[in-house]
Amino acid sequence: MKRTRLLLSITLLVGILTGMTATKTLNAQQAPKRTDLLSSDLAGIAGKRVTVYRVEISPGTSAGKHRHPVDTFVYVLDGTLTLEQEGEKPRTLNAGEVVQEVPAGVYNAKNAGTSPVRLLVVSLGEKDKDFSVPVK
Fold first, then answer.
1. Which residue in 36, 68, 111, 133 could disulfide with 57, CB within 3.0 to 4.6 Å?
2. Are the C-beta atoms of residues 107 and 83 closer than 8 Å to each other?
3. pLDDT confidence band for 130 (50 / 70 / 90)
4. Contact call for residues 86 and 105 (beta carbons, < 8 A)
C-alpha cells in the first residue's frame, strides 16, 4: 500500500514537472504578435508613408535581432521591455516610455518579465522599403 502511494506520488510529481517544462518551452518559442493598425501615404510628401502597429511580446521571448531602414518610434503600452542596441548598454523601458530606433541600428526587444509586453510602434519612411528587417 505504501509502495503504491509512493509510486503514484512520484508519477504525479513527474507529470506536473513535465507540464511546467513544456509550457515554458512553448512560451519561449512564441514569436511576437504584430497587429497592423494603419498604413498610409504621407500627404504632401511623395514616396513616404507612415505605418502604425501594435506588438505583443510574450514573457521570456524576444523579437530577435532586427534593424529598421526607416525612423521607428516605440511606445511601451504595458509591461517592461529590455531593448538591446548593438554597441550600447541594454535599456529598460516601462509602460509610458518611448524610444526611437534609428535607421540601420541593430536592435533586439526582450521581455524578461512574467506578463506580456505590449508596444505601439510608429514607422515613417520610404513607401517601398520594409519597415523591419531580420539580422542574423
1. 111
2. yes
3. confident
4. yes
Q: Give the SS3 label for residue 127.
A: coil
Report residue 51 as a C-alpha cell: 505605418
Position 15 confidence tier, pLDDT thresholds 50, 70, 90: low
Set of cell numbers at residue 65: 535581432
- The torsion of the CA quartet 52, 125, 128, 97, rounded to 10 degrees, works out to -30
63 close to 122: Cβ distance less than 8 angstroms = no
Contact 123, 69 (CB under 8 A): no
Residue 116 DSSP SS3: coil
Per the listing, cell 518611448 goes with 98
pTM above 0.90, yes or no: no
For residue range 89-112, what is the model confidence (pLDDT) as tens digits?
Answer: 999 999 999 999 999 899 999 999
Could you tell me how far CA 67 lies from the centroid of its own chain?
14
